[in-house]
């Protein structure tokens, strides 16, 4: 494309669009139709320039012009409670459901890795000795030791808030850092599974694995599921960088990135529930079977939410992306 010729051919249209957008009085019907037509043409011109002859100054001018025209054509829109309801009943569960082929294997493989690490640590005294001195290991695993008192070492509300903040941050990092080919996500997963495996191994070697599981399972089922969903989605985002499929890489990353951003908000709510369980249920005086039952009910409720509501929304075309009216127009990129 000869950029100078292209600009000369279409400058009058851009100037006319700018003039219509600058009008202080209401446009007539014919002028409104003209504005829509010029908006569509200018958006196509911008797409052609970006793909064939990118020029920073011209691209900036047309981007601003298209943005102004889009606002004039579509109007401004404020978020409402209807948007929140749609997100919670369709967008978020559909996004989690669509990513199930990534986070379910992630969950299974990670859990198996934690169990294997726990078995290795629990059956090899030399590995335990490399983790800490015998006296320190006893202070961790004995009745009333640090593994047990950890959950009641702070006021319940403050502890729940701290746990929620830490877990939400880890989930957000998985989602955001997934774009780096998923490698940081694998490291975050490894750290989480290593911590879990060390706890399993040390407590099992002390003959107190049942106590450890009674403390971890009430909140851990939902908490780890949220982490696995975030990690699986991050890995999916990383794979999109490698293989965007039939979409352009730019379009694919935009769509998956917006869905991941929405998922971060939804998972923060899920982790809020698991944090509340960890702060108020795990250290409570309830019998172990009751605490674990609460954790199982919370986990089953989330899975039902994803597979029933999310599955239904996904089959109806919901992707977890923002609505079509709120996306930037997708236009041809070939001359």
Task: Describe the 3D structure.
The protein has 335 residues and is mainly α. 79% of the residues lie in helices and 0% in strands. Helix 4 packs across helix 13, helix 5 runs parallel beside helix 10 and helix 9 (156-177) packs parallel to helix 11. The radius of gyration is 27 Å and the shape is elongated.
* SSE order, one letter for each helix or strand: HHHHHHHHHHHHH
Runs in which pLDDT lies below 50 for 5 or more consecutive residues are 324-335
Largest sheet: none
Q: What is the strand content?
A: under 5%
Molecular shape = elongated
Question: How widely separated are the two ends?
Answer: 8 Å
Helix content: over 70%
Supply the helix-strand structural class: mainly alpha
What's the total helix number?
13
Say how many strands there are.
Answer: 0
Rounded to an integer in angstroms, the radius of gyration calculated over CA atoms is 27 Å
Average pLDDT number: 85
Produce a short descriptive summary:
This protein has 335 residues and is mainly α. The chain contains 13 helices and no strands.
List the helices and strands and how they pair.
Blueprint: H1 3-22, H2 29-52, H3 56-74, H4 81-98, H5 100-122, H6 125-131, H7 134-141, H8 146-149, H9 156-177, H10 183-205, H11 209-242, H12 249-281, H13 288-315
Helix pairs in contact: 1-2, 1-3, 2-3, 4-12, 4-13, 5-10, 5-11, 9-10, 9-11, 9-12, 10-11, 11-12, 11-13, 12-13
């Amino acid at each position: 494309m000869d950029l100078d010729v292209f600009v000369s051919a279409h400058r009058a249209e851009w100037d006319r669009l700018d003039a219509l957008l600058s009008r202080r009085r209401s446009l007539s019907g014919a002028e409104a139709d003209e504005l829509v037509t010029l908006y569509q043409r200018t958006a196509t011109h911008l797409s052609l320039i970006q793909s064939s002859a990118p020029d920073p100054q011209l691209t900036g001018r047309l981007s601003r012009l298209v943005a102004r025209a889009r606002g004039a054509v579509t109007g401004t829109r404020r978020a409402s409670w209807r948007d929140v309801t749609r997100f919670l009943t369709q967008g978020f569960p559909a996004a989690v459901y669509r990513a199930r082929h990534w986070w379910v294997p992630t969950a299974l493989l990670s859990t198996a890795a934690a169990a294997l690490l726990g078995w290795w640590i629990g059956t090899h005294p030399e590995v335990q000795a490399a983790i800490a001195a015998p006296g320190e290991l006893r202070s961790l695993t004995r009745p009333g030791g640090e593994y047990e008192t950890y959950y009641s070492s702070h006021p319940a509300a403050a502890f729940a808030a701290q746990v929620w903040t830490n877990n939400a941050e880890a989930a957000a990092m998985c989602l955001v850092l997934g774009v780096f080919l998923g490698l940081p996500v694998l490291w975050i997963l490894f750290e989480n599974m290593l911590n879990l495996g060390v706890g399993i191994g040390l407590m099992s070697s002390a003959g107190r694995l049942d106590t450890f599981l009674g403390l971890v399972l009430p909140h851990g089922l939902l908490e780890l599921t949220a982490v696995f969903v975030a990690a699986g989605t991050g890995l999916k985002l990383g794979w999109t960088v490698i293989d965007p499929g039939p979409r352009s890489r730019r379009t694919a990353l935009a769509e998956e990135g917006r869905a991941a951003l929405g998922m971060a908000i939804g998972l923060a709510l899920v982790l809020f529930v698991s944090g509340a369980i960890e702060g108020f249920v795990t250290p409570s005086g309830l019998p172990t079977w009751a605490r674990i039952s609460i954790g199982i009910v919370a986990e089953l409720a989330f899975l039902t939410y994803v597979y029933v509501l999310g599955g239904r929304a996904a089959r109806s075309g919901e992707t977890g992306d923002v609505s079509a009216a709120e996306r930037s127009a997708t236009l041809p990129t070939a001359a």
